[in-house]
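ugh ok fine here u go
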Amino acid sequence: MTESHQDRTALVYAAALALMPLLAAIAPRALAGFPALAGLAGFLAVAWQRRSFAGILNRPALLIAGLITGFSLCSILWSVAPGETFERSWKTAPILAGLVFMISTAVILPAQALRKGLRWLPHAVFGAAFLLTVDFVAGYPLFRMLNGFAQNASVNASLLNRGIVFLCLCVFPAMAVAQKKSLAFLIPCIAAVPVALSDSQSAQVGLLAGLACLALFPRGKNWAWRAAAAAVVVYTMLMPWIALMAFSYAGTIDGSHYFGEGGAYGAQRLEIWHFIADSIIRHPMLGHGVEAARGMHFLTQQRFFDSDTVLHPHNVVLQIWLEGGAAGIACVTVLLLWLLQKIREMPDEARRFILPLYVTTLCIASTAYGIWQGWWVGLLTLLAAYAVLAGKIPFLKE
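structure:
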């Protein structure tokens, strides 16, 4: 593959990924497919120019995608809803394949040309923030037009939360690849406007947690990284018991203006977590299979959440416990610790922003979406590609 072909492929590939925030602002569900397609196109371009697939596939990405797909398929054997488990497994597999293609392409292409394409990411974040802000202030005309709503139809602001969440998560990769410090620190200020206008408390809390990590985490101290790893282990391994204890505060949370009734669904989340945790403890080893919650009826007091069924637990750790049991959560804990170590090994110019991305992603995943939603899986694979690309950029100084 000639250097000019490499550079052209890298420029187009990086620019396509960099412009994803604009797409997500108007059509967030497209994240289920477009990042994977961009990764596949870049991968095939590299393979065609090299006239070979040998040595291109990134082994860690391939292993992660393979293990997730394999475990979800194997969970059919003990699933309470094998049909749902099989359907979700085969629908998720192509999106996870996109992870392999995106990471493989990002690793192999030249960093200088990738940098030229990635320079558009901060501007795409600004553009997405502008579109979302205008939509909130003007009464959602763009959302109505793109989703087939009549212009006088009522729109629930929460319907824009997917775009808000992705915008929030793009803040830190955009800061990592910004070519000027002034531009980097303008990014969270601009993105904070639509996030504050939105109904997504998950995005608001996640962004604040990420910014706190950026400002306060002592990256040069070994004890801080060990403490972060210990916190991950405690959170993942003990979350069912934490959830049981936390339910005693549901009444207090319900009275909160921000997290409770009239502001959010804090008490409902705590009750969901409580009955999910109770079910986990009754069947802790292998769990109930992928998407098990959809087919289960839970023992619940129905004090704040008036149903004994739920689509998903609204917490990534509890969902993995419910579906994969202790075996599944042990694997995910290892994965989270491995990712934390990889972030630690990055050059400091990158890890100062990618660690807050890790924290923000975990915060949002702990309160909001089901882990098997296609757009969410696609979003996570895209964030992984951003992190890999950001790790290459700081080696180039202007």
